[in-house]
């Protein structure tokens, strides 16, 4: 986004005083070092002074000069162009049969959250990671051309950040919306796949994406600094809705939020990718053969998507 738009979306009035920003950073850093060692990397990448985040961006995000793009079909080139321009693209291919499989397989009663789960208060009914070794899911997760679109978008190898996850939620009147209900950025060009597992309209709980807000690094990843009303004024808002089996790819550097509508639900299959900014965080696999029966038959750029998942 250009400077004028940025100044309206991130107004100076919402920016904390320099000393407060520094104090918050050092407190978080000390806390991460002493109490929560696993959070140290997150603090450094998300809350550091601007010049540190700029260095991290150049290291993790900027395209690599030696990267050789994976050849794409004309249709996939169109998807890549739209992803670059708008930050989000819907793949013109129905995965309805896969959606039915996921719902039947992973929304069974035994996978529902316990009645006393804290996530129930947020309206979640099912929220669980699933295994990369489920061959049926490879139709999306390891489609050579879809994976190539992501790698070419980055200009470097992409990796899965975590296991794919299935979500089933219902926004009841008593539900407390998640913090993702405000426009925010997930940082460092994390890309997500989102597969709709049932029909979704603008009147249902869904995600909204500010088209074009992804084109440069956000000045801050602190969502409290964003003027929420300014986002809807400055950008075209894309409603991530459609028929069952619709697949979206989007760059979460762009501003997005959950739009929660009471007494409606949403069912999605979701997974995140980075260029290595965030290490793999979920289940580990003993070897590639656990995921691919014949790894050598899979294109190298596809195999590498799970490099961080193998022990």
Could you walk me through the main structural features you see in this protein, from its secondary elements to its overall organization?
The chain is an alpha+beta fold and 311 residues long. The protein has a single domain (73-309), classed as q2cbj1_9rhob like domain (Jelly Rolls, Sandwich), CATH 2.60.120.620. It contains 10 helices and 10 strands. The strands form 2 sheets. Strands 1, 2, 3, 4, 5, 8 and 10 form a 7-stranded antiparallel sheet that branches. A 3-stranded antiparallel sheet has the order 7-6-9. The longest helix is centred in the first third of the chain and has 17 residues, at 18-34. The model has no long low-confidence stretch (mean pLDDT 91).
Question: Which features characterize this protein?
Answer:
single chain; 10 strands; Jelly Rolls; 30% helix; alpha+beta; 311 residues; seven-stranded antiparallel β-sheet; three-stranded antiparallel β-sheet
Low-confidence stretches: none
Order of helices and strands: HHHHHEHEHHEEEEHEEEEH
What is the level 1 CATH name?
A: Mainly Beta
Give the terminus-to-terminus CA distance: 40 Å
Give the name of the CATH architecture. Sandwich
Mean pLDDT, rounded to whole units? Answer: 91
Number of contiguous helices = 10
Proportion of residues in extended strands: 15-25%
CATH superfamily: q2cbj1_9rhob like domain
Number of domains: 1
- Number-wise, the strands total 10
Helical proportion, percent range: 25-40%
What is the CATH topology assignment? Jelly Rolls
Gyration radius, to the nearest Å? 20 Å
Tell me the structural class: alpha+beta
Task: State the shape.
Answer: globular
Largest β-sheet summary: 7 strands, antiparallel
């Amino acid at each position: 986004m250009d400077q004028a738009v940025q100044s309206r979306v991130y107004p100076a009035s919402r920016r904390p005083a320099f000393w407060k920003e520094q104090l918050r950073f050092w407190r978080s850093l000390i806390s991460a070092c002493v109490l929560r060692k696993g959070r140290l990397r997150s603090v450094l990448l998300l809350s550091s002074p601007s010049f540190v985040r700029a260095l991290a961006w150049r290291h993790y995000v900027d395209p690599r000069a030696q990267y050789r793009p994976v050849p794409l079909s004309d249709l996939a080139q169109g998807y890549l162009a739209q992803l670059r321009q708008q930050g989000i693209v819907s793949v013109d291919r129905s995965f309805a049969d896969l959606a039915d499989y996921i719902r039947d397989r992973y929304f069974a009663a035994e996978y529902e959250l316990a009645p006393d789960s804290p996530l129930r208060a947020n309206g979640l009914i099912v929220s669980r990671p699933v295994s990369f070794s489920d061959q049926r899911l490879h139709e999306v997760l390891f489609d050579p051309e879809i994976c190539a679109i992501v790698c070419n978008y980055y200009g470097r190898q992409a990796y899965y950040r975590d296991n794919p996850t299935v979500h089933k939620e219902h926004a009841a009147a008593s539900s407390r919306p998640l913090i993702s209900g405000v426009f925010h950025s997930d940082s460092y060009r994390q890309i997500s796949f989102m597969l709709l597992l049932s029909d979704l309209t603008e009147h249902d709980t869904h995600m909204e994406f500010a088209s074009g807000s992804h084109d440069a690094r956000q000045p801050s990843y602190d969502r409290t600094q964003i003027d929420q009303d300014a986002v809807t004024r400055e950008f075209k808002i894309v409603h991530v809705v459609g028929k069952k089996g619709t697949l979206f790819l989007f760059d979460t550097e762009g501003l997005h939020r959950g739009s929660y509508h009471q007494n409606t639900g949403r069912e999605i299959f979701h997974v995140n990718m980075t260029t290595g900014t965030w290490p793999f965080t979920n289940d580990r696999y003993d070897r590639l053969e656990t995921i691919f029966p014949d790894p050598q038959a899979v294109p190298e750029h596809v195999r590498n998507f799970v490099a961080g998942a193998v022990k």
